[in-house]
Amino acid sequence: MTRRVLGPGFWALAFAAGALGQSFTERGFLETDFIGYPQTAPNDSGQAIGEALFRYEAFYKLDSDWQFAGGIDARADTHEQVDRAWELSWDDRESRRPSFEVRQLNATYSKKKLTLVLGKQFVRWGKADILNPTDRFAPQDYLSVVDSDFLAISAARATYGGQSNTIDLVWAPLFTPSRIPLLDQRWSNLPSGIALTELPPSFPGGSQFGARWNHIGSVAEYSLSFYDGHNNLPLFNFQEPQPLTVDVERYYPQMRMYGGDAAIPLKGVTVKAEAAYFTSATKTEDEYALYVVQVERQAGEWFFIGGYAGQVVTEHRSVFDFAPDRGLTSAFLGRAGCTIDTNRSVALETAVRQNGKGEWAKLEYSQAFGAHWRATAAFTLIRGDESDFLGQYRRNSHTMLALRYSF
Amino acid sequence: MSSASWGWTPVPRPTSTPVARRGGPGGPAQTWRSAPRLREHRSKLARPGGIGPLACLLLLAVPLAAQDARQIVAESQRRGRADSQRYEGSLEVISANNKVSKKHWQSDRLGSYGNSKALIRFTEPAEVKGVALLVVNHPERSSDQWMWTPAIGRDRRIAQQDRSTRFFGTDFSFEDLEERDVGQFDYSLQGEEAIDGAPCWRIESKPKEGKSSQYTSSRVWIRKDNYVPVQYENYVKDKLVRRLAEKDIQNIQGIWTARQLEMTDLGRKSRTILKLENVRYNVPMKDADFTVQALRRQM
Known about the structure:
By secondary structure, chain A is mostly beta strands. Chain A is 6% helix and 54% strand. In chain A, a hairpin with a 2-residue loop joins strand 18 (287-299) and strand 19 (302-315). Chain A is globular and about 65 Å long. By secondary structure, chain B is α+β, with helices and mostly antiparallel strands. Chain B has a single domain, classed as Clam (outer membrane lipoprotein receptor (LolB), chain A). Chain B has helices spanning 28-31, 35-46, 53-79, 292-295; strands spanning 84-94, 100-110, 117-124, 132-136, 144-149, 154-157, 185-195, 198-207, 217-223, 229-236, 239-252, 255-265, 270-281. Chain B has a 13-stranded antiparallel β-sheet with strand order 6-5-4-3-2-1-13-12-11-10-9-8-7, with helices on one face. The longest helix of chain B is centred in the first third of the chain and has 27 residues, at 53-79. The chains are: A mainly beta, B alpha+beta.
């Protein structure tokens, strides 16, 4: 009886799966990381951290016009950087990484020169590789400052144009902040002995809007961009209700950006440049310009990227902020990598402050085993003065071992 | 992947058996794009005045031979024309010490020779699933290429000077993925030679002045019976650096198609075998699916 009832349903599902298979793709991985810190930090004695991340993404193309994408992250760790509450997060506003998170969920409609994307999605602007001043719709997870990861935003995006010229309009009704280091952990670099209390953050209302025109020519690519919204990196209010007790409140200043970027392939190297000028109606936020100039070259199995990131402050107003984008300026940036063979690669990234007060370097070796497994070993070295953005993390040099199974 | 000269997108070089095709962009009219220039060139040389008939004949011999070689190549390309092509590629990269890594991709191509656009998207192994390459070919210059890496959510334009590097661990370089117009090269007929028992023309091609290529010259063997190219050799100066062998040639929808391509990198002593599965021609495709915007759609 059961077989008779289930039979037609089973075949219907099997047929549907077969039809779906024509336009359905999925991918993901399970990764476990071990991170070891040789030194303790004043506010964090932990020296060994274990992390696990399961990521699943699926894509379905309904027809030639419609496409859907969805993805989820599930995390766990030993250092309470991941929230212990088993809840599904959509807006990424938690201080800790959520244990379950909608990584992306969006619908794409494309017709002739128009592409519309609606939902939680990644929006990346800019052409430089190490620092992108114009990348305003790309908040990041900075819990471990030098190993950041991008967060998706809830937005509507319309792109119109062909191969040569495109106009990109982005409207984000819900603000997504960058995730900053936890106050009780080493990457916040706070002194011990002070009772810090984090007050509920003040998230801005209203929406964010941005527009970008991009041109692809035979000799160069360049774009102009505009953003009006809020900085996804916070400023801080400190209050001292009683001695040795400090209340901290995050808030996010209004921001307007005027930017541009270009990539020009020359005979020997490709030159990339990106710059943006930021103004703010918030009285405690600086007004400043960030710029990056870099050259890159691929030679055989090697690639090289080298450049300089700079900053010009036109009006200094902020007191307490967390700004890794500005912290990486006035610095020489470099990246080099080599593909040893089809399974092995090695890479080196570095940033050296112009005044010599902060250095960061990361050496990474990665090897694949078969079609699914990859092991990665990395060593990150940080040196410098306490007063420098990079140098303040000098106790956070670390090693990382990762094992990933991809499917 | 081609030989440098008329390059192709990882699109098997088809030949033979002309099929009915539309005119207009990508149609037969473009196939002989270079012919009028050749005729003009010849007529100038033959113009009387100062040069004696014998000298004229001697001078004519070279361009005529060049035209023959060009016409053979053009005919080979003409026979492989289709509005579009789709296939699933299965790759085996075999290193010098016989380590084998396997990859799969899906290739879509819109148009043919010169004006075509191609999109290659890896489907396996899992860790590179979604990585994609867009190649936009131009009749008058080198192609534009962009690579999409979903893990970092960025597209990267492949600069001209980087085209000689290997494409994603295979023995094909980025330049080998181009599909170039016949008018971008000079050709000369070098002789005749049998490959696997089949009589072939051996043709040498060199990039025209102002044309950038990692290869100084290339040679192709084209079968005389059906105009199928069966082997390419690519040289840097006088050194042979890459050899491409095309095998398992089958007639698919009226187009002779090599189902197996073997590229050997003689410097690295490694080779890549690409097998083409589920090859289909004239599949409906949209021009809008071959843009940088479309490249970012992660299917």
